[in-house]
UniProtKB/TrEMBL annotation:
InterPro entries according to UniProt: Isochorismatase-like_dom, Isochorismatase-like_sf, Isochorismatase_Nicotinamidase
Keywords: Hydrolase, Metal-binding, Pyridine nucleotide biosynthesis
Annotated family: Belongs to the isochorismatase family.
Domain of life: Bacteria
Protein name: nicotinamidase
Organism: Belnapia mucosa
Length: 219
């Protein structure tokens, strides 16, 4: 797939949750999370003229925080009205420095920032829908108005917010690519062995989502 050409009219780069809260030293650190910033900046300086970003944006005491459920620990799963919910350390608190987009992220070509997870009662992984899979963020309508048909996703984390965004984008009819070297994953263990990064990649591939690297793109 070397030299995959980007069409600035119909192709869009989606930058998912590139925030210090998900990087080393942050509240919900992804190993190597800060390493995606220079890779994404290369994508923004070269192949892609148009991009959007998402920003996790939780109020204090959010229902997805383990601290909001006495006796529960981070990474446990509980039942919520909309389905199973992984509990997280407090993170991406509205207005905090760690909830901002990373200061070194080049933002000149980022034309929309979608804030998600701001409703106290429901978590939001996907760039398109809250975790009830019904409440929309408005991103789909914006992309449709722009005539976008192919989405290239990068950011954090590959097995959660990037994955949910990719799955929803494919379900909505976009051709979806995940740029692997511009992503990092959490990698929680899964029943039967393996981790969420490997399991998620297999699931997304089955859904027709393509995994590529920056070396597959024409600069």
């Amino acid at each position: 797939m070397a030299g995959l050409a980007i069409n600035p009219t119909t192709d869009m780069l989606g930058i998912v949750d590139v925030q210090p809260t998900f990087m080393p030293g942050g509240e919900l650190a992804v190993v190597g999370g800060d390493q995606v910033v220079p890779v994404i900046n290369w994508l923004l300086a070269g192949p892609f003229r148009h991009a959007f970003a998402t920003q996790d944006w939780h109020p204090a005491g959010h229902s997805s925080f383990a601290s909001s459920h006495p006796g529960r620990q981070p990474f446990e799963t509980i039942a919520m009205p909309y389905g199973p919910q992984t509990l997280w350390p407090d993170h991406a608190i509205q207005g905090s420095a760690n909830a901002e987009l990373h200061r070194d992220l080049a933002q000149a070509r980022i034309e929309l920032v979608v804030r998600k997870g701001f409703r106290p009662e429901i978590d939001s992984y996907s760039a398109f829908f809250e975790n009830d899979r019904k409440t929309t963020t408005g991103l789909h309508g914006w992309l449709q108005a722009r005539g976008v048909s192919r989405l290239f996703l990068a950011g954090l984390a590959s097995d959660y917010c990037v994955a949910y965004s990719a799955e929803d984008a494919a379900r909505l009819g976009y051709q979806v690519f995940v740029i692997e070297d511009a992503c990092r994953g959490i990698g929680l263990p899964v029943a039967g062995g393996g981790d969420t990064v490997t399991a998620t990649k297999a699931k997304l591939t089955t859904a027709g989502i393509r995994f590529i690297g920056t070396d597959d793109l024409a600069a």
